[in-house]
Structures are given as C-alpha cells and as structure tokens.
Amino acid sequence: MKYDLPKNVRIINRTIENDQAVTLHLAVQIDFAPGQFLMIWIPGVDEKPFSIAGSDREGVMITVRRRGNFSRRLSGLDVGASVGVRGPYGKAFKLAENCCLVAGGVGFACLAPIADLFSHAPIFYGENTAKNRIYQKRFPRLNFYTVDGSGGKKGVPTDDLEALIQQQGCKMVYCCGPEPLIVKTMRISQSLGVDCQVAIERYMKCGIGICGQCVCGPTRVCVDGPVFDGLYLLNNPDFGHRRLDATGGWESIEVIQKEKRNHEN
Ligand SMILES: Cc1cc2nc3c(=O)[nH]c(=O)nc-3n(C[C@H](O)[C@H](O)[C@H](O)COP(=O)(O)OP(=O)(O)OC[C@H]3O[C@@H](n4cnc5c(N)ncnc54)[C@H](O)[C@@H]3O)c2cc1C
Ligand code: FES
User: Average pLDDT of 139-167?
Assistant: First the structure.
C-alpha cells in the first residue's frame, strides 16, 4: 500500500470544455502511466478520484464533469486556487501501439493520455448529446457519436468497432465509459479474439485499498484496477450489475445509468 499525504497544488490553467466540464491544469509533476488516477481533496468538502487526463512541462491535467456538490465545487475553482493532490494510484493500461480507443462521456479523460501517445490510433467517442462533447480542440479528428443524433453520427461508439477491427487489424481495444458500453466493447473484442483492457469506476474513499468501498466481485478497484483485462471482468459477478454507494449499500448499475442520462440531458 502506498500512502501519500496530499500535496497542496495550484491550478495554473482552466480550459472550459463545455457547459458542464472543465479541464484543470495542476502545477505538479507526476510520474504516471495512462489509466492511473489522483485523489483530489478540497478541504472541508471531500476527496474524490479523478483520472489523469494528460500532462505537459508544467504539470498534469484532470477533466471534471459537474454532477454533484464536489464536482461543482472543483470545476468552479479559478486559476490560482489550490487543491490537495495524492497519487498516482491504481494499475495502468499495458500499452500496445496497434490499438483503438472506445470512450463514453467523461471516461474519455482516462484514455486521453493513450490518444496522446499513439496519435494514429482510431478513437470512437460517444456522448448522449453533442453539447457534452469534450476535447474538441485537443482531438478534433475522431469518430463522434451521439445517442440523440445532435452531433456526429447518431448511435454509440461501438457501432462501427467490429468493422474497424476487421479492416485495420487492431490488436488491442482500450475502453472507458458507462458499464453497458464497456460490456458491449468487451463482447465485440472477445468475439473477434482481440485483447481488450478497460478502466472502470467504483465509489472510492481511501483510494489505496483500506476501506473496501470500491469492491467489485473479489477485487478492490482502487488497487487491483481501475484498469482490468476485459475477459476477466466478463466473469466478475458485480461488474455491469451493482456497486456500493456512499453509505455502503448496494445500488444497481442500471439505475445509476438512468440517473446519469437524466442529469446530462
Ligand atoms: C478511478 C476514477 C476516476 C474518475 N475520473 C473522473 C474524471 O476524470 N472526471 C470526472 O468528472 N469524474 C471522474 N470520476 C468520478 C468522480 O470521482 C466523482 O464521482 C464525480 O465527480 C461525482 O462526484 P460528486 O460528488 O460531484 O457527485 P455526487 O452527486 O456526490 O455523485 C454523483 C455520482 O458520482 C459517483 N461518485 C460520487 N462520489 C464518488 C467517489 N468518491 N468515487 C467514485 N464515484 C463517486 C456516484 O455514482 C454518484 O452517484 C472518477 C471516478 C473514479 C472511481
Ligand atoms: S477506495 Fe478504499 S479500498 Fe478502494
């Protein structure tokens, strides 16, 4: 177990992605690998996990989509404000150059460092509606899908995945997003005999394997994940079905997805 005290880190840049999401540039150099996350602390509010969405010479970035109190407070912080940062935590993606990326919603943040690394890799990215699109400037050329047809192609990012894998012979699929999208991606990859690695979310408190809050079947997502081999997850009894909420009670993934969609539309 690796425990760090939070470092006090300044926000040095703030990119507005859309009405609901911002990318915060944090003045801290972190030796991370794609797929890992940071615990971000706002004193007196809470501490929550966020994927490392990229880095440059000045520090690292996180992308925050507004949902509840914490993400609203974090995304509202201005340049010059500070947050507590600990990490990086979690298992990273094993990198393979001949790959493609399947991203849903703010799950794109977790895959963005792979897209930076392998700039030729095809990206399939979907949102419920076009106004939620992130990284318009950073990744202008990708296959964009919306469920309501308000931008890009009407549909979901897995719609053209099978055809692409067959045409281009990708050897690895990386995926992060809502669990139904992950399940679909894993099944397509499995049926074509292609490796698939996915990053998943569970409610996290400690982020370092102590509290058991992030359990998914026999694993703790903060230390055994958040990146898992797709085939392994297909046999995990909780994945795609249920997770613990803040109080430690089980909640259904289907119900969470419905609430998310209502919130975004
Ligand atoms: C490994 C990991 C990486 C993440 N990366 C990002 C990211 O890059 N960008 C981003 O916007 N969000 C990310 N999240 C989600 C983020 O941690 C918060 O959950 C989210 O911002 C909503 O929190 P809230 O308090 O504002 O909303 P709330 O209204 O309190 O919660 C909304 C929903 O968010 C989920 N949630 C709340 N707290 C947590 C928590 N401590 N851990 C996990 N899920 C929680 C629950 O499903 C809850 O129903 C990530 C979560 C995990 C586990
Ligand atoms: S968040 Fe505490 S064990 Fe994973």
Answer: 94
Contact 252 CB / ligand 1 (< 6 Å): no
Q: Whose CA is nearest to atom 37 of ligand 1?
A: 203
DSSP state of 90: S
Rounded CA gap, 182 and 190, in Å? 12
Say if ligand 2 is within 6 A of residue 64 CB: no
Give yes or no for residue 20 CB within 6 A of ligand 1: no
The predicted-structure confidence for 108-132, as pLDDT tens digits, reads as follows: 999 999 999 999 999 999 999 999 9
- Using the predicted structure, report yes or no on whether residue 191 has a pLDDT greater than 60: yes
User: CA nearest 114: which of 187, 163, 172?
Assistant: 172
> What is the arithmetic mean of pLDDT over 19-46?
96
Domain spans in the chain, listed from the N-terminal domain onward:
7-89, 99-259
Tokens of 146: 């919306």
| CB count in 10 Å sphere of residue 57 | 5
Inform me whether the pLDDT recorded for 261 exceeds 90.
no
* CATH class held by domain 7-89: mainly beta
Phi, psi of 80 (to 5 degrees): 100, -25
Distance CA 221, CA 235 (A): 15
Each as own residue / partner, the long-range contacts of residues 214-219 (CB below 8 Å, 24 or more positions apart, any chain) are: 214/244, 215/244, 216/243
pTM: 0.95
Contact 210, 1 (CB under 8 A): yes
Fold of 99-259: Rossmann fold (3.40.50)
